[in-house]
Structures are given as structure tokens and as C-alpha cells.
Fold Amino acid transporter transmembrane domain-containing protein.
Amino acid sequence: GAEPAPEAPTTSATTLLHGRPLYIALVYLTFTTMVSLFVSDLGSVIAFMGTLNSTLLLFLLPGLCYAALDAAATSQDGKRHASCTRILAQLYIIIGLLLLPLVAYIVSSE
């Protein structure tokens, strides 16, 4: 007998491109429109975003990655001991958390 025709892929009103939800695009467009309407100096926005991204990339993400790598490490007796990696990871996270608001305040006050 005749085989039934394959069904056409269904599309939802809540998807945009390649199955991504529409609300993500709407939130992004709304946020960028609000920034463009209320900020008169684009340089200050770029400077602020640069400080946030650089602090995240230089201190917080490496610290969190080292902490995640060290979390699974155990000694031969099954107990976790303080390691240099864990101490440095915690130090990086603390420095990043201290620098993030400080640098954001310095850039926003200029």
C-alpha cells in the first residue's frame, strides 16, 4: 500500500530560529533598546561592560574552573586535603569578587 506522507515539522509561535525560544530574543531586544534610549554616552557603557567582562575572564572563571577541577580530587585515603590548587582557586574567586564592585564603581563614577 501507499505510505503516508511524512508530517511537516510543526512550528510554534514561541520559537524564532532553529527552535530557540522567542522570549530570549524579546528580552535581548528590549534590554538593548532600553540601554540605547536611556544612555547618552556609548563609551561609558562599553567601559562598564569591559570592566565586568575582564574581571570575570581574569579572576572569577579561572578560579571557578580550578575549584571544579579540584573538587573531584581526593587523596589515596579518600580524604580531601587542602591543596595549592584549591587555595589559589579560592584566592582568585575572592580577588575577583572584591575587584568586581570596586572597578564597576570606579568606572561608573568617571
Q: What stands out?
A: The mean pLDDT is 79. The chain is about 65% helix and 0% strand.
